[in-house]
Amino acid sequence: MKAIGCHIIAEFSHCNPETLTDLNLIKDIMVKAALEAKAEIKETAFHRFTPQGVSGVVVIAESHLAIHTWPELGYAAIDIYTCGETTDPWAACRFVADHLEAQDLSISEVKRGMSNSRGYFSHAFSKTHITGGLKVVQSA
Amino acid sequence: MKAIGCHIIAEFSHCNPETLTDLNLIKDIMVKAALEAKAEIKETAFHRFTPQGVSGVVVIAESHLAIHTWPELGYAAIDIYTCGETTDPWAACRFVADHLEAQDLSISEVKRGMSNSRGYFSHAFSKTHITGGLKVVQSA
């Protein structure tokens, strides 16, 4: 079955906590990550929490990128979801991991919108839980 | 391992195509779904495509809700991601399925941000691919 979208779900551990708490920096990283994926940006919505943490989403013509950060834990939850043949969600994933200085990465790829002949859409996961930092993502 | 967040990934098939193409209605459904989940809304970002289709995200204090629609296929891809003990992402899922008149639902729950003693965060899936409409979600 052919999928309409590719959705990367990632937990990044041992990130730079100063980066994770900086709204403008996080927004800049996510917007540039969307461009790295060759996506077309439509809308952005970011919010900084008190005392810390940032949540934000970049709506793209090809779906969305999202981030939620827990600076006190060095942890960020990332979603990179793109549709179509022209985008590269893994390029965005590498870019975000690099700029958050993530040391450990737990990543799964979800094929979204796999259809059968009756017009029923489903999804499928391929899981890649890995420790070891950036090099793993770069060779994915 | 305890998880920080619960992320419902859903593909809804055989939805009402008129609803799927109406930006204001989709936004209204997603905002109300966030409230159904007892989430606190922080930001919204929605976009309507030409000739059809809507993408949008509701950033909540507890993470985000997202939707992407393909009216011509009767298909919508939904993400409902909440953190904390006070929210009910399944209530939001039921609300969206109900208001899109989704007949077939493919749903998985992802536990996000499961940590071990070394501060390494990962995730885990429980998959529930089901045909049969709303009653399945309501009994989940």
Describe the structure.
The structure is a homodimer of 140-residue chains. Chain A is of the alpha+beta class and 140 residues long. Helices cover 25% and strands 47% of the residues of chain A. Chain A has 4 helices and 7 strands; from the N terminus they run βααββββαββα. Chain A has helices at 17-20, 23-36, 89-100, 134-138, and strands at residues 3-13, 41-48, 54-60, 63-70, 75-83, 104-115, 121-131. A 7-stranded antiparallel sheet of chain A has the order 2-3-4-5-1-6-7. In chain A, helix 2 packs antiparallel against helix 3 (89-100). The longest helix of chain A has 14 residues, at 23-36. Mean pLDDT of chain A is 91; it is low at 136-140.
State the gist of this model.
By secondary structure, chain A is α+β, with helices and mostly antiparallel strands.
Q: What is the oligomer described by this structure?
A: homodimer
Radius of gyration of chain A from CA coordinates:
15 Å
Measured as a percent range, the helix fraction of chain A is: 25-40%
H/E series of chain A: EHHEEEEHEEH
Mean pLDDT of chain A: 91
Which key features would you list for this structure?
globular, 7-stranded antiparallel β-sheet, 140 residues, 47% strand, alpha+beta
Please write out the topology.
The structure is a homodimer of 140-residue chains.
Chain A: E1 3-13, H1 17-20, H2 23-36, E2 41-48, E3 54-60, E4 63-70, E5 75-83, H3 89-100, E6 104-115, E7 121-131, H4 134-138
